[in-house]
Every structure is written in C-alpha cells, then in structure tokens.
Amino acid sequence: ETGVTQTPRHLVMGMTNKKSLKCEQHLGHNAMYWYKQSAKKPLELMFVYSLEERVENNSVPSRFSPECPNSSHLFLHLHTLQPEDSALYLCASSQRLAGAYNEQFFGPGTRLTVL
Amino acid sequence: GQNIDQPTEMTATEGAIVQINCTYQTSGFNGLFWYQQHAGEAPTFLSYNVLDGLEEKGRFSSFLSRSKGYSYLLLKELQMKDSASYLCAVLDSNYQLIWGAGTKLIIKP
Q1: Which residues are paired to B70 by β-bridges?
Q2: CB–CB contact B48 A109 (8 Å)
Q3: Alpha carbon separation from B93 to B28, B90, B96, B97 (Å, rounded)
Q4: How confident is the model at residue A28 (pLDDT cuts 50, 70, 90)?
Q5: Which residue, among A67, A74, A113, A72, has the nearest Cα to A91 in the 3D structure?
Q6: What is the pLDDT of residue B22?
Q7: Cβ–Cβ of A101/B41 closer than 8 Å?
Q8: Residue ranges of chain B with pLDDT lower than 70?
Q9: Within an 8 Å CB–CB cutoff, is residue A39 touching chain B?
C-alpha cells in the first residue's frame, strides 16, 4: 500500500449505530487530519493530530470521536449520528503540522450516509 | 472572517484554455495551494504559490498576486480527463489551510 488509505469506502448507518472509519498513511508523516466534505461547501477541518497528540478540535459534535494510536493510523468513531452528518469524510497527512509548503496528501475518503 | 471565493462551475471545450480564479481574504498568508479532485476520489496536489508571479508546470500554470488577494489556475490544451473539481486553499498566519468550495470544471468534446 502506498499513500493514504481509508476504509470503508462507503458506509450506510442508522442513527443508533456505532461505526468507525479507519485511515492509514504509509508516508512517514507526523501530522494527520480528518475533514468533512459536503456538496458545494469548503472542506471542513474536524480534527488534527501531530505526533499522535490532538492539537485541534474545531467545535465538532461529541458524536464524532477521533483516535490516533500511532503516527500511521487515525480513526473516527461515530455514534448516534444525524442525517445531516451524511458526507464524504477525508483523511489527510502531512510531513509536519505547520510551516510553508506543507502539502497535505489525501485518502480517497469514506462516503457516509446516515438514514 | 476568512473567506475563499471561486466560481462554482465552469464549462470549457476540449483543446481550449480555461482560467479558474480564486480570491481570498485571510488572516495572514503563507502560501496558496491548488488541488484537483475527480469525482469520488482524493484531492491531489497541483501547485503551490507563495511569491507573486506565474508558476508553470506542463499544461497547468498557477498565478498569484498577494497585493490583490488573487490567484488563478490556467489549464491549456484541455483534455476530457481534466473534468474535475479544482480546490483553492490558503495557508493563513497560523499555517491552517482555509479552503474554497471548489470549482467544478466540465469539459465538452
């Protein structure tokens, strides 16, 4: 595997379900990100991890819970979601957290549908 | 507040040239990125500008004017595979990426 991978690619869940999204980066990067992408809206940054420590939480509802067990893996645990949470969830990584020319590498995303 | 503006959708003809504009108002500036995103796929890096001027990379070029808060992505010799969304993003003073909503480019034969 190369780059950034995400599983599952598609997920349909009811509002009472609990599920998890998984992200893995094979680039040796130190920073990882979760984004939400809704149609015709800018990417919304949800969580940022640097060296396995959470450094940002942009007022994300508690029904989204991130976990970063090591610098290569990132999870997003989901429970009691709402239909408006349906979106594409993108994971990204970068060499470092801050600095110029800090290109982010994205995974293919998980298309989430909440019924 | 911080804001990135780009057209929602553009249409162009195969073989032609198209320019996608991006204007920004951010707290500080540490560079501007352009990403390409095909439907159902990951955004992929196209270009990065931090100094004023034009950066050329094959059929794609990106221009930046920091004084005007303005950038454009120029695509030449358009191919059908260039049909995608093009995302503009600015690194602000805290090195946080501020994203535009993206421009969906439709290429017609």
Answers
A1: B23, B65
A2: no
A3: 4, 10, 7, 10
A4: very high
A5: A74
A6: 98
A7: no
A8: none
A9: no
Predicted local distance difference test score (pLDDT) of residue A1: 62
Chain B positions touching A8 (Cβ under 8 A) are none
B94/A98 Cβ within 8 A:
yes
Q: Is 80 exceeded by the pLDDT of residue A21?
A: yes
Using left for φ > 0, alpha for ψ between -120 and 50, and beta otherwise, residue A45 falls in beta
How far A80 CA lies from chain B's nearest CA (Å)?
A: 25
Looking at residue A101, its pLDDT comes to: 78
Q: For residue B104, what are the CA distances in angstroms to A108, B10, B38, B73?
A: 18, 6, 9, 13
Is A115 a residue whose pLDDT tops 80?
Answer: yes
Distance from C-alpha of A24 to C-alpha of A52, rounded to nearest angstrom: 13
A28/A9 Cα distance (integer angstroms):
23
Q: Which residue has the higher pLDDT, A64 or A101?
A: A64
CA distance B10 to chain A (A): 14
